[in-house]
Amino acid sequence: MLRVEDLLFVHPGQPTEYSFSFIAEAGEVTAISGPSGSGKSTLLDLIAGFLEPRSGRITLDDIQLVPLQPEERPISLLLQSESLFEHLSAGRNIALGLPPRTSKDTTRQKVGQALAEVGLSGVEHQIAATLSGGQKQRVALARTLLRNRPVLLLDEPFSALDDETRQTIRDLVKTLTIRHRWHTILVSHHADDVEQLAQRRYRIEAGRLELY
Hints:
This protein is an alpha/beta fold.
């Protein structure tokens, strides 16, 4: 279980004090919604380690996350933009999720397995810039598979996709979350994303999280 307890944060020069407490279970999608500027991305940045809270705890099972640097946390982050290197192939982008000294044969095998799991077998040599938006998100999810981290943060990951592709990627995220027992936390303005994906739902109002 991922547990956020009494996490307090204030942006310098701003009056709003954010206070966050919630839980996210393995194998489930937890949705965070709220108006623009309410603190949704702030919460993800706190969990990822890009911001430091004034006080509070973030724990994954028995691991304390707040003392850890972002690169040390068992977390992957998927944004609206796919964060791919456009000049690299799909396979090389995915391989960035592996430890640096992984052998070529192991890399080839694991990249192929990850591509198959996200439904993109055979595109490992295709340059990322030539992929569609949905394909890019699948490549980003394949890289997440190879990172093998139990927490997945999604910040408006479907916003740039058309309706049909959006539904396909939503279904894939749900399947992977269940299969790999991820603690998936979704930030989205879209009610359909929340309705179709989330088992647990929170809303931020005036800097406070409320279960709904």
